[in-house]
Amino acid sequence: MASIKLILRTHQQDQTGHCPLYIRVIKDRKAKFISVGLKLKESEWDEAKQRVKKNHPNSARMNASIAQKVADAEGQVADLERKVKTVSVKKLKEAIKGKEVPNFFDYAYKRCEKIKGSVSVSTYKNYKMYLKKFEDWVGTKDVFFDDITVSLLMDYMAYMVNELGNGQTTQRYSIMILAIMFKEAIKEDIIPEYMYPFSKLTLKKNTAPRTFLKKEQITAFMEYPVKEGSLAELAKDMFVFSIYAGGLRFGDVVELQYKHFLEADAKIKKTINKTVNRTKAEHQFKVGKLALDIIEKYKKENPDPTDFIFPIIKHKEQYLKNREFRQKVKENATGSINFQLNRIGKALKFDFSLSFHLSRHTFATNALNNGMRIEHVSKLMGHQDIRTTQIYAKILGEELDKAVDDFIY
């Protein structure tokens, strides 16, 4: 037979010192918690008598409301246990709750479908992937919002570390996706704000330093011999292009079209003018001579303005019209280009794994090192917060400190 008791969950205390009150249902040594919809200070709750203390100004009214909810819960449990001989604690909770708190996974997966058209394909896939990861760990879709507590999330984080070997970045994303769903549900008034359990979690950021190519490494990379017309040559050229074209991300370099450079007389301009994939902002800036030389190298004769500069995308029409196909092509291209870059990096004995994104880091650190104002670097890179750009300035500061230690003291 199930037992029912009121529990003040002091480990969920908010900044004002208030804690949520729950009805705890225990059946077959398994417990479920159902929100009463009230919050109290620990000093206002009498655990032994299961009542709000008289020091609370509305104690009489609140006790009457709580007593009614407990009586309703007991009635629901008794009715269901009479009808079903082997009822589970989950079913008891559902019977008591009614529609008070929705199922988390029902809401989260539906939310993914709602935003599918307004986010990138990769973002949509990541949302669903991290939700499925959590679902697989919990072992069921039968999870309500108030089932997801601080202690449950801490167990999940321990599982990611100990069983999956996830790093800090993966842990952060895994938890952040869940938190986003809670925030959206709160915005829609589907759940109360006090059900949000993430405020008490500490998510560590990856403090690994950002890697970039120094000038002598850039020179060695550019001089590394590759076969003409090979994928390795294309990887090299795209990487160098990004370094001298504002640190453009791989997706933006891949999608550069002739219209982003052409003028009325079909001569290449010295600026890029395109909408950046990540921020959806219009980006216009001057590019360096090395980047322009690479464009000239791949320039077709009498190209269509919608043709891509770099010969890596096949089936142009399908690519431009189909989001899923576009994402798949970019993922495959990223893997292929990074494979070639990593091979070159190993041949040059770089003490880090060379990938395309390092071209972005390399642009930022070299631009700052050459005296470009941090505001201008931030603008070129499309950073929404200059504090992101300041990370590169800090790297240069650390490099300078090391140089002083090595050569002066």
What does it look like?
- The protein is mainly alpha-helical and 409 residues long.
- The chain folds into 3 domains: 95 residues, no CATH class; 97 residues, DNA polymerase, domain 1 (Orthogonal Bundle); 193 residues, hpI Integrase, Chain A, CATH 1.10.443.10.
- The protein has 15 helices and 7 strands.
- A 3-stranded antiparallel sheet has the order 1-2-3, covered by helices on one side. A two-stranded antiparallel sheet has the order 4-5.
- The radius of gyration is 29 Å and the shape is elongated.
Strand order of the largest sheet: 1-2-3
Q: What is the beta-strand fraction?
A: 5-15%
Instruction: Summarize the helix and strand pattern as letters.
Output: EEEEEHHHHHHHHHEEHHHHHH
* Biggest beta sheet attributes: 3 strands, antiparallel
CATH topology annotation of the largest domain: hpI Integrase, Chain A
The CATH superfamily title of the largest domain: Intergrase catalytic core
- What is the typical, i.e. mean, pLDDT? 84
Write the layout of secondary structure elements.
Blueprint: E1 3-8, E2 18-27, E3 30-41, E4 45-46, E5 51-52, H1 59-83, H2 89-97, H3 104-115, H4 121-138, H5 150-162, H6 168-187, H7 215-223, H8 231-243, H9 250-254, E6 271-275, E7 282-286, H10 289-298, H11 316-321, H12 323-347, H13 358-369, H14 374-381, H15 386-407
Antiparallel strand pairs: 1-2, 2-3, 4-5, 6-7
Helix pairs in contact: 1-2, 3-4, 4-6, 8-10, 8-12, 8-13, 13-14, 13-15, 14-15
